[in-house]
Amino acid sequence: MLRVQKALNPEYVAHKATHNLQRSTISEVTAMRDGKKFAVFIIALLSLALLPIWQVGSAPPPKAETMPPEKEKPVPKPPILAPPAPQLEEGVPAGEFFAVAFRPDGRYLAVSARWSARFGAHEQRTVDILDARTGKLVGYYLPDRFYEGIQIALTFSPDGRFLATGGMDGRVYIWDTKAAKLLRVLNFMAPPGPVETLAFSPDGNYLAIGGRDGRLRIYRRTGKDWSQLMLIFNRQIVKGELTEPTPRLPAKGILSPKERNELERLLDTMRLKNPPFVRAVAFDPKGRWLVVAGTGEVIGAKEGIIVLPFPPQKNSRPVAVLRGHARDVNWGLRVGTQLKPPVPWVNDLAVSRDGRYLASAGWDGTVRVWDMTTFKQVRKLESPKTPTGRIATRIYNACAISPDNRYVAAGGFGNRVDIWELATGRLVTSMRTDNIVETVAFSPDGRILVAGGWDGFLRAWQVGSWRLLWQYSHTFIEREVPKPIPLK
Q1: What's the confidence (pLDDT) of residue 275?
Q2: Which positions ≥6 away from 341 have C-beta within 8 Å?
Q3: What is the C-alpha to C-alpha distance for residues 233 and 290, in angstroms, rounded to an integer?
Q4: Most confident of 28-37, 96-105, 139-148
Q5: How far from 110 is each of 126, 241, 321, CA to CA, in Å?
Q6: Closest CA to 278 of 174, 340, 368, 197
Q7: Which residues 6+ apart lie within 8 Å of 350 measured at CB?
């Protein structure tokens, strides 16, 4: 390497040439005998003698620009291929919305979000508070950290003061939104597990909780706020069946006891043939009854939506059982060589403002409307233009009734929000989304319909014209967890 550097240095080249010339000149002195060679020798000698004089007496010649030594090029490594950005259509969403709840006065909207930078890294689970009119972010309702599980359920108390959230972390958080204070945390980690649904009673004194253990629990507050409460009702509503036993985990390993319990519960859930999830609970606005529904086998009724008197007592019997889902559909789910009817499970319930109607969103690709004065079905609203046998595109996850009882909205695996007229059952319109819809809700004044899901957008449409008003996407929080702010 040193030889290469010297060979490329002009000063070194000149010095070497002069040195060689001097050596050749001295060697030729003894060999020269004729006049021509001697003359040549004298001329060369004079030129060498005059060179130092010229260098001293005249300006130095400009130095040649020296090039930096060439570095050895490293051997190129194979390129590192970054994983592709999350593709929603491939089932790897970058963000999702799971639940929404309007404050009763319609000013604010609480939204449950899950967001990740890429493929689950740095996942954030939040409850965002939006201005319902503009869709602008107002703040967040978080404990001193991000939630440990997705908040699947949200509900405001009738006076708008309290906000309850619950979800996959097996906890229910009760907030005082006027003071921006976390009042109480109910822990259902062992053995109940994740929370699926929440609802306040019309008088604001009761909170109903449904979970993945198939039980309905009702708490009553014992003070002015929800810092003190008492469990008054606890009943198994649905039951499930394991398809195979949960594999035994090693006795020793890197898992903590808490992580082992969570993993065992998750494995149990994934092996359920009929998952015993209480998916929805709703109160009669006049306080006469409450309804509860879910997946799995309904205890004492096999299937259906259970209507219980309110407030229920320990031995209260159902007022009615609403049956109809999956009984009159004209399509089947292919299992092996057989076509089987879809299951009569229910994912969501919505009660009209006057308490007359109940809507239920089912796994059979229908939304049923029930007259709650007679407990009879009055409408069967079907999923439009859906390929026969594709159950994944038919399931409805959420439903809502407009405050004036004019419209019924529902969304699910069909990647759209369908709107029907309640009085006639006519399909009014379908608004497309880019992925599965998890939640829909009408504003209290009936002017706005919002929906969110797996495509990472919460959208708001104007009711009637169905024009898109705004859409919201959760902003990834880069710094410390923001503190909740009081809601006026």
Answers
A1: 85
A2: 326, 329, 332, 333, 364
A3: 13
A4: 96-105
A5: 10, 35, 32
A6: 197
A7: 282, 358, 359, 360, 399, 400, 401
Rounded to the nearest 10°, the torsion over CA 428, 432, 433, 437 is 40
User: What Cα–Cα distance (Å) separates residue 19 from each residue in 47, 79, 307, 398?
Assistant: 14, 50, 111, 94
Edge-to-edge strands, sheet with 195-200: 195-200, 206-211, 215-221, 229-236
Residue 135 pLDDT class (50, 70, 90 cuts): very high
C-alpha dihedral (155, 159, 160, 164), degrees to nearest 10 = -30
Tokens of 484: 């909740």
180-194 pLDDT, tens digit per residue, is 999 999 998 656 689
Contact of 401 with 359, CB cutoff 8 Å = yes
Taking only the tens place, the pLDDT of each residue in 391-425 is: 557 789 999 999 999 999 999 988 999 999 999 99
Q: One-letter amino acid identity for 487?
A: L
So what's the pLDDT on residue 389?
A: 45
Residues in Cβ contact with 340 at an 8 Å cutoff, skipping those fewer than 6 apart? 332, 333, 334
The pLDDT score that the predictor gives to residue 228 is 93
